[in-house]
UniProtKB/TrEMBL annotation:
Biological process per Gene Ontology, one example term: long-chain fatty acid metabolic process
Domain of life assignment: Eukaryota
Keyword field contains Flavoprotein: yes
Protein family per UniProt: Belongs to the acyl-CoA oxidase family.
Record's protein name: Acyl-coenzyme A oxidase
Cross-referenced Gene3D superfamilies: Acyl-CoA dehydrogenase/oxidase, N-terminal domain (1.10.540.10), Butyryl-CoA Dehydrogenase, subunit A, domain 2 (2.40.110.10), Butyryl-CoA Dehydrogenase, subunit A, domain 3 (1.20.140.10)
GO CC terms of this entry: peroxisome
Organism: Nepenthes gracilis (Slender pitcher plant)
Amino acid sequence: MEAEAAVDYLVDERSKAQFDIDAMKIIWAGGKHEFEVSDRMARLVASDPVFRKDNRAILDRKELFKNTLRKAAHAWKRIIELRLSEQEASKLRFFVDEPAYTDLHWGMFIPVIKGQGTEEQRKKWLPMAYRMQIIGCYAQTELGHGSNVQGLETTATFDPELDEFVIHSPTLTSSKWWPGGLGRASTHAVVFARLITDGKDHGINGFIVQLRSLDDHLPLPGIIIGDIGMKFGNGAYNTMDNGFLRFDHVRIPRDQMLMRVKQVTREGKVVQSDVPWQLLYGTMVYVRQTIVADASCALSRAVCIATRYSAVRRQFGSQNGHETQVIDYRTQQSRLFPLLASAYAFRFVGEWLKWLYMDVTQRLQARDFSTLPEAHACTAGLKSLTTSVTADAIEECRKLCGGHGYLCSSGLPELFAVYVPACTYEGDNIVLLLQVARFLMKTVSQLGSGERPVGTTTYLLRLEHLLQCPCDVQGAEDWLKPDVVVQLFEARSARMTVACAKSLSKFSKPEDGFMDLSADLVSVATAHCQLIVVSKFVEKLQQDIPGEGVKQQLEALCSIYALSLLKKHLGDFLSTSCITSKQASLANDVLRSLYSQVRPNAIALVDAFNYTDHFLGSVLGRYDGNVYPKLYEEALKDPLNESVVPDGYHEYLQPVLKQRLRTARL
Ligand SMILES: CCCCCCCC/C=C\CCCCCCCCCCCC(=O)SCCNC(=O)CCNC(=O)[C@H](O)C(C)(C)COP(=O)(O)OP(=O)(O)OC[C@H]1O[C@@H](n2cnc3c(N)ncnc32)[C@H](O)[C@@H]1OP(=O)(O)O
Ligand SMILES: Cc1cc2nc3c(=O)[nH]c(=O)nc-3n(C[C@H](O)[C@H](O)[C@H](O)COP(=O)(O)OP(=O)(O)OC[C@H]3O[C@@H](n4cnc5c(N)ncnc54)[C@H](O)[C@@H]3O)c2cc1C
């Protein structure tokens, strides 16, 4: 094949941008320093051949896993050699872009000891974990119990004679099943088990358990351990060793029970400390918050691929002597631009959620537990909303890329396969939305009792007004007013919440009501979470936004985010009489004009994510838009193309062909 000169097929597109892209890059990264770190780490990874990832789809499981071990070890070596800060190291791991045991070690094992250990326990275990002298995972889920944490069966029975706990798996269903890093890599785990003392069950708690020898990595006596097998997709999440684990009366010293929430004394007495018991779930709150930030990364990545390819791809029609760029089709815009807007929306709500998490953590340290329920509801609800939207959006981006989107070299199949479990792990999305609904029902039921709603539920203080207020849209331009839009989303959420609360009150047992109305409760929770995302986007725009044209672009995206949600959930808005059908039709007109406004800026808006071609891992999303020759190049790398005549021809193809010849002669 002829070598083509390097041409940037997207130069024209970039020249149309009406805003300062460098300023937008800084907004996206969350600050100048954050941008600088992220940019440096992305380039470092992209330029290192050990971090190549274009062969993942064709490696078998063992090679794939070994390769991941190699990359993780190399990443660690670079972190030490370059004396990277925690922020730099975590960015480096992010750009390596390969699920690995290190995610669970840094993302859950260390946080659970930090959050649920006593000071003494932190001093003992954290230095070893920080130096990676031990590798840990988070072993909560069991074969028979995932969502229902209180239903876990593994037992930790105190033996006062030896001052030890006996960890045991009493049934098949009590086997730990799923923990990442457990299958092959981890030496230790924080295991969640039922605390039993003196024959009494005190509920679940975390215990630090050594699983494998630090000398030869063999499982310790009483530990039965392995990998749970291949998961969805080639490559994808199969770089991770999700594992199973059974205990046969494994003994650990008493001081390996994480004792911040509950303590067991030398005599076997259980003492409950004054922190809320829900802190046992605190690591999940922390990880849910990071998953929201991660959703904007996965979504922006898919949108970047689909947007660049949509500008390169041409079908039908006539545009300056060529066929039409598919990005100019209104249908393509109406599918793509709301996803672009969602990527920015999730970025900003993720930033806010990080702040909320830090705030609740500081309050907890000062023994102020008042905002914990809200932090739980926000992290659970936003984790659910952003991961569900992102998973669907990646698949939509694949379709937006037509047939080529289905090729592994588009990067989209693997991104989808890696991403979809986010809808399940760290809490099934429906189960989490039901937690939000429970919080909203409780908030509404307490309104009369003087309990003031806090933070994201403060709007419920204006319940009377929100239940009746008409929507202030008279002309199309009113849809661009942020206060009009926010009030509309508040009214929809308030009205749906109250309607559900009324229906619930008709049940004599609230649990029966929750069962019967659970589908409606999920819709209520979704409406509330969408309100949070819309209002955090609007709040972001009230801050100082430097850079020519940057604020205008973000305002357009904010309106697209809100109005496309309105269009998608029109039934909610009409059935609660929040808007009239005339107003809905005006919103649709505004959306079309917003798409026209975004169109010339679309490529620059995805360039602002500052992704390297290495990170994107997509021929269709290449920065230079040079798609077709590179698609050929990738195709030729496939092992099937290594020989002209395929392996198996002589055994299986030739006989068939010959047989057909004979039949034809007959
Ligand atoms: C080299 C390679 C480098 C690669 C680098 C990659 C870098 C990537 C960068 C970023 C990536 C980020 C992504 C991270 C990746 C993560 C990988 C995957 C990890 C997955 C791990 C897991 O899945 S761990 C297991 C998770 N399990 C769950 O989530 C279980 C869900 N279930 C529950 O949480 C609970 O059972 C329940 C909440 C659903 C119910 O609990 P329970 O029965 O006890 O409660 P009630 O409903 O009765 O509630 C009682 C009461 O408590 C309140 N409450 C409940 N939960 C909480 C909480 N968490 N905090 C505070 N309060 C809580 C509840 O509201 C009730 O309150 P009331 O006032 O009584 O109403
Ligand atoms: C890739 C991956 C990595 C993981 N990593 C870890 C890890 O490191 N450590 C760990 O401990 N665990 C891990 N998990 C386990 C994960 O946390 C659980 O799978 C998750 O919490 C969901 O629980 P489940 O599998 O029991 O689902 P189930 O609860 O069995 O869900 C099945 C269906 O039932 C529905 N459902 C359940 N309860 C209700 C209800 N009350 N009301 C209405 N519908 C309901 C759900 O919506 C779902 O549709 C991982 C899972 C995956 C997929």
